[in-house]
Amino acid sequence: MLESNPPADCADDLLEIAGTTYTSRLLTGTGKYRDLRETRAATLAAGAAIVTVAIRRTNIGQDPAEPSLLEVLPPDEFTILPNTAGCYTAQDAVRTCQLARELLNGHKLVKLEVLGDQKTLFPDISATLEAAEILIRDDFDVMVYTNDDPIVARRLADMGCVAVMPLAAPIGSGLGIQNRYNIMTIVEEATVPILVDAGVGTASDAAVAMELGCDGVLMNTAIAGARDPVAMAHAMRLAIQAGRLAYRAGRIPRKRFASASSPIDGLIG
Predict the structure, then answer these.
(1) Cα separation, 185 vs 179, whole angstroms
(2) Is there a contact between 25 and 210 (Cβ–Cβ < 8 Å)?
(3) Percent of the chain clearing pLDDT 90 (strictly above)
C-alpha cells in the first residue's frame, strides 16, 4: 500500500557536499533577524542543517564581550558555513576565510562571494575565480556564489569548488528566478551540487528552483524580512520538499491544447 504521506527527506535522496551528507536541502542565513532568539526559532522552523554566517558582520567569538551566534546555533547542532559577504576583493575574501578557519578550529567549508559593486551586489567573476583558486590551493572546501552563466559555473566546478551557487536574482531583491533556462543549463551540465543563492522572495520561488533540478537553495532575506519569519521559514521548508519531490516524480510535458483526464477510447455507444 502506498504511504499517504511519503517522507519529505528521503533516506535515498540526501544532499552531499564535500563528502558530508545532509537531510535538508534548505540552507539559511543568520542576518537581519530581530534578535538571536528569532534567529534560532526561524532556523529550526526551516529545518536547516547548514547555516551561513557573515564573518565580517557577525560575532562568533571575535568579541568575547558580545553575545555570540554560536550560543544559539552551536556547531554540534548545525554546520556553520562562514561566508565572505561584504568582500569586494579576492584578498579580503581569502583573509576572511582564513579568519573563519581560525575561529572555528580548522573548519574547511566556506561560502565564497566577492562582490562587484554596492548597488547590484553582483559577483565580480574575475576576483571570484582568483579567490577560489587560492582557497582551493589552501585546502578549503569552497561553495561559491556566482552569476547564472553556465560557462562560469562549469569553470568553477572544474577548478575544484565543492558546490556552485548561481543567483536567481540580485541579493535581497525577492524577484525569484529570472532566467530559468540558464539555471536549467547549469544543472544539466553539473558535476557538483548546484544551489540557488540570492533572489528568492517566497515559497513558490524556492519550489521552482527545486523543480528545475537544483540540489538546494540558500536564502536569508526572504525569511528574515518576512512579516512572520518563523512561519515563512516553515513555508520555505515545505516548498523545498515539495519542489524536490515534484522534480523526482517528473512533471507532465507542456502542451498547447487540452488533454482529457479520462481517456475516450472504448466509450460505450
Answers:
(1) 10
(2) yes
(3) 84
108 is catalytic: no
Of the residues 32, 108, 111, 255, only one is catalytic, namely 111
- Alpha-carbon span 38 to 44, nearest angstrom: 10
CA distances to 12, 80, 86, 155, 196 from 113, rounded to whole Å, are 31, 16, 8, 16, 14
**Per-position DSSP letters for 103-131, written without gaps between them:** HTTS--EEEE--BS-TTT--B-HHHHHHH
Residue 128: burial class (beta carbons within 10 Å; 0-12, 13-18, 19+)? buried
Q: What CA–CA distance (Å, rounded) separates 131 from 94?
A: 6
Contacts 24+ apart (CB under 8 A), 40-46: 40/72, 40/73, 41/229, 41/230, 42/223, 42/224, 42/229, 42/230, 42/232, 42/233, 43/73, 43/78, 43/233, 45/230, 45/231, 45/233, 45/234, 45/237, 46/223, 46/233, 46/234, 46/236, 46/237
d(CA 119, CA 225): 19
One-letter amino acid of 229: P
pLDDT digits (tens, 9 = 90+) for 122-160: 999 999 999 999 999 999 999 999 999 999 999 999 999
Q: Residues 39-91: pLDDT tens digits? A: 999 999 999 999 999 998 888 878 888 888 999 999 999 999 999 999 999 99
Per-residue pLDDT averaged across 174-197, rounded? 96
Query: Residue 222: which H helix or E strand, with range?
Result: helix 221-224
| DSSP reduced 3-state for 16 | strand
